[in-house]
Design a protein that fits this description.
Blueprint (H helix, E strand, L loop, with lengths): L14 H11 L1 E4 L5 H19 L5 H10 L3 E3 L15 H4 L8 H6 L5 H10 L9 E3 L7 H6 L2 E4 L3 H5 L9 E5 L11 E4 L10 H5 L22 E2 L7 E5 L3 E4 L7
Antiparallel strand pairs: 1-8, 2-3, 4-9, 5-8, 6-7, 6-9
């Protein structure tokens, strides 16, 4: 049977519009971007990587607790290695979980894939994949579980600021919804950049943010007072966002 191409696995997007919105707000949402087959492949890959990380115990509560101990993150590749920025390497194939990776997922995040093409358009031709992970939020069972699946306000490159030896380079994240997401099951919430002059970098734009300590926790009843954007999107939607844009997400309050 004919193997689908990355173009056939996604809908057409208008790159210039995405670039304008990304520069203005620090993020852009492409709803219903990936085809169902790709989403299914992502879900299967996610389940396989999770089993490799936390085992296959029949004790669901114990497995959820192990995942929470990992920060609700199932890592696919190893971004801390010295070759992480080598664009000629297939990091997914080289990692210990390489055998679990589905070709549909590898293709869609590759340079010519639906996600890769947008990343290159927003970052430039020298963009390359260096971090590949799944975030899985177990259903709430206790206060500990609530806090484990809650991500407080942050920007993704904070680790560069905290690590005195890190060499910063602008990057972005491509967040793919594998389920229909809303506030109940812990979707993302963004704080767009404050208004600014055109041409300023993302890190310069982010300097105008209020202090993170001044923003209410996603667990707080005051979170809705923040003039941000709460994402309610269907599975297959993709959010592209800068390493400098502030965002958070609440816990998974659903039963699944």
């Amino acid at each position: 049977s004919k193997r689908a191409t990355a173009h056939e696995m996604s809908k057409t997007v208008h790159i210039e519009r995405l670039a304008r919105e990304y520069a203005e707000r620090g993020y852009v949402v492409v709803e219903d971007y990936l085809a169902r087959d790709v989403v299914d492949a992502c879900r299967t890959e996610c389940e396989d990587v999770m089993r490799a990380r936390i085992g296959t115990s029949d004790d669901g509560r114990a497995r959820w607790a192990e995942l929470e101990a990992l920060g609700c993150v199932a890592q696919v590749n190893a971004p801390s290695t010295s070759d992480a920025r080598d664009s000629d390497l297939n990091h997914r194939a080289r990692h210990s979980h390489g055998a679990l990776c589905r070709w549909q997922v590898s293709e869609v995040i590759g340079r010519d894939g639906a996600i890769g093409k947008v990343a290159i358009a927003l970052l430039g031709e020298d963009a390359r994949l260096f971090n590949d992970q799944y975030v899985v939020k177990p259903p709430a069972r206790s206060d500990v579980a609530l806090r484990a699946s809650c991500f407080e306000w942050h920007h993704d490159s904070q680790w560069c600021d905290d690590d005195g030896k890190a060499v910063y380079a602008p990057y972005m994240s491509a967040w793919v919804a594998l389920d229909d997401v809303c506030e109940e099951n812990g979707t993302l919430r963004f704080l767009p950049y404050p208004p600014s002059e055109d041409g300023r970098s993302h890190r310069e734009r982010a300097k105008a943010y209020p202090a993170r300590s001044a923003l209410p926790s996603p667990l707080s009843d005051d979170i809705d007072a923040v003039q941000g954007k709460l994402l309610t999107v269907r599975a297959g939607s993709v959010v592209f966002f800068s390493d400098a844009v502030l965002h958070c997400s609440g816990p998974n309050m659903s039963e699944t």
